[in-house]
Write a structure and sequence with these properties.
This protein is mainly alpha-helical. It is 52% helix and 10% strand. It has helices at 7-21, 40-49, 54-59, 65-68, 78-97, 101-104, 122-147; strands spanning 62-64, 107-112, 115-121. It starts with 6 loop residues before the first helix and ends in a 17-residue tail after the last helix.
Amino acid sequence: MDGSMMLPEYDHEFAETRKALERVPEDKFDFQPHEKSFTLGRLASHLAEVPGWMGPTLQMDLLDLDEMGYEPFVASSRDELLAAFDKSVAEAREILADTSADTMMETWSMKWGGEITMSMPKAAVVRSFIFSHNVHHRAQLGVYLRLLDVPVPGHYGPTADEKM
């Protein structure tokens, strides 16, 4: 399976994520439902980052987090959040579309703390570490929106706020 075969799923999932991000109230970026939780702004910003993992996943064989020097993105406004998300989604889509079936089956590994923490085919990383990770955090965002009394969009069916 080449990367282009995943495009319908990619397009659907990230379009749904954008719907949720559009509803993030800018004046509530500091909202945190629990002391162990991300703030709303950090959670939404993390969702904007997730598509950006497509390049390191498909264009590298090893991601060493210790060498990477990762700095989390934290948007200061909804406009900045959506612009970063849209840019990340467009760049990732292009990378995915251009990836061969052979590349999708190559092993990708992540190293952290001097240890390999994960190794699997790149196609599996795209599905789990990018697609499912996005859905997981989008669901968290839905809880935050509910707690803030912001209408939650329906992604796979109706919500209490949208009858579709």
